[in-house]
Amino acid sequence: MCKTEYAVCGNPHLLEGSLSAFLPSLNLAPRLSIPNPWIRSYSFDGKEEWEVNPLYCNTVREIYPYSNSNRLLNIVDMAIFDFLTGNMDRHHYEMFTKFGDDGFLLHLDNARGFGRHSHDEISILAPLSQCCVIKRATLQRLRLLAQPEYRLSDVMRESLLQDPLAPVLTEPHLLALDRRLQLVLDAVGKCIEAFGEATVVADGSVQPQSAAVHRAQPGT
């Protein structure tokens, strides 16, 4: 196992890894695989539109179901999760079909998470920084996990002690969670400063009026 596109090699030929499968079969619980609107470019030939157009979210908001459901808010949640773990490889997400357009997203394939603890890939937060929307419940939980008595790294450390493979994450990875969490809150703070909390923070599954639309208007 040594491929240049993966930038990893075995020692001498095997890699340690993990596999977890908790989902029922497709016969029992059909699900859809849906391309992530913020899919990353995987070649040197060009860039995806979101990587070069800061107003890309305006386009996404015009597309069903992102135009009239909680899907965009769920995408932002997923981006925050991926940023905290350092996962740059969210090219698709999945959903159970029986719950319709307002179902929850399945965060499958997290193999590239927790790679470089010293690097924070800000581009993963593009759905948040470009759309400037976030669920109030998500923001409240993030703010709680930034408090000294409920620090995310401490919560994760305690939780992972129950795992047979404890400690699972090294201390630098745990500390990176705190650092990245603050970067998420900073990004939300910039959105609120620019557009106001009523425009940025969503109560329940109702999306606020688009902040991204305001960005497209000259002089605002």
TrEMBL record:
The Gene Ontology CC terms held by the record are: Golgi apparatus
Binding residues for Mn(2+): 109
UniProt keyword list = ATP-binding, Disulfide bond, Glycoprotein, Golgi apparatus, Kinase, Manganese, Metal-binding, Nucleotide-binding, Transferase
Q: Name one GO molecular function term.
A: protein serine/threonine kinase activator activity
Look up the record and name the cofactor or cofactors this protein needs.
Mn(2+)
- Compartments in which it is found: Golgi apparatus
Q: Which domain of life is it from?
A: Eukaryota
Annotated binding of ATP, by residue: 20-23, 94, 109
- Where are the active-site residues found? 89
Q: Which residues form the FAM20 C-terminal domain?
A: 1-200
| Pfam families found in the cross-reference section | Fam20C
Regarding protein family, the annotation reads:
Belongs to the FAM20 family.
Q: Write down what this protein is called.
A: FA20A Pseudokinase
Species of provenance: Sitta europaea (Eurasian nuthatch)
| Gene that produces this protein | Fam20a_1
